[in-house]
Amino acid sequence: MPFYRAVGEIPRKRHIVFRRPDGGIYSEELMGEEGFSSDSSLLYHRFPPTAIVKSEPATDPLAEAEVTPNLPLAPRHFRTTELAAGGDLVTGRGMLAGNSDVRLSLVTTDRPSELYRNSVGDETVYVQSGTVRFESTYGVIGAGEGDYVNVPTGTIHRWVPDGPVTALVIEAAGHIRPPQRYLSRYGQFLEHAPYCERDLRGPTEPLVVDGPEAEAATPVLVRTRGGLTRMTFAHHPFDVVGWDGYLYPHAFNIGDFEPIVKKTHAPPPVHQTFEGPNFVICSFCPRPLDFHDDAVPIPYNHHNVDSDEFMYYVAGDYAARRGSGIDIGSVSLHPAGFTHGPQPGAVEAALGAERTTETAVMIDTFRPLDLGPAGRQCEDTAYAWTWAR
């Protein structure tokens, strides 16, 4: 994270004695990235975070998910609204596409998840509909439609929906951060950035479980590069009375993204919101369209020769895609090796338009995306030929 935050009770200096009301000493836990040479936070637990009483293998719902290359090469359209609800925001993920850098999954559920720790990489969860309470060792974040919730590697957390929730889950094999070009050399958002620190919401107070639950052995589902383990802690891990640092979960609403516009159509980098290992996340938001007198106010045919483009359509009117079958809840996958653009007739129909109402989340990957089982299950197999109609 690019700025400092302190929540709850912390001592005046790091790594000095910090006593509990009963005279004992709180247990420190330093959560740090890149061998403690990058961002970190220091958490103060009532109980040792190291005390475990059991560790056993757990069934991984995605372990047997067969992925297949996008061959023969073709643009794809996934109708995600056809996928069945089930599981929770951890175990109910249906993989649409993925590679060794990132997995992209869709989940619809109304069930709370068990406690979970992803020790492979950061996660960004985009809430398409519904509301959910994100609980973690850092505290609580309330999230709803349009929120990105960024979860740092190693964070113990759970998701508690308030009714049905649909979300796109982006699981990285590393860290997800704001683009470096938006930040000063010291980490402050610059004036040209399309969002800033004021738009980011983090926990505001500790989440401490009390009573018998605090003293009870508590299982946590832990994902590592080797698979899933269910690790049982001697006490409930929600026992942090305070923390400070630059590393913590936070939410950002897509409605707070400030689109950058030009006289003529701007390419996707102006929509970039976050970056991960070998991929970027972009937000396409309602905005004024290009204002040159002769502008063509929709995307030109384009071919990102180094990337696959995964686009999740979440709200608004997709004028450039009219006639393709694309609608809210659709995902298009346009792979490197294929030139894509507006549907036939869309250019002529768009001339003179002044605004767009579309909202979409795009992930561009710099390695090819394989097709996941959920993607194959809800694919519109006629999509590839819609430009030839």
TrEMBL record:
Pfam families from the UniProt entry: HgmA_C
GO biological process terms held by the UniProt record: L-phenylalanine catabolic process; tyrosine metabolic process
Active site residues per record: H265
Span of domain Homogentisate 1,2-dioxygenase C-terminal: 278-375
Swiss-Prot/TrEMBL cofactor(s): Fe cation
Family, per entry: Belongs to the homogentisate dioxygenase family.
Protein name as annotated: Homogentisate 1,2-dioxygenase
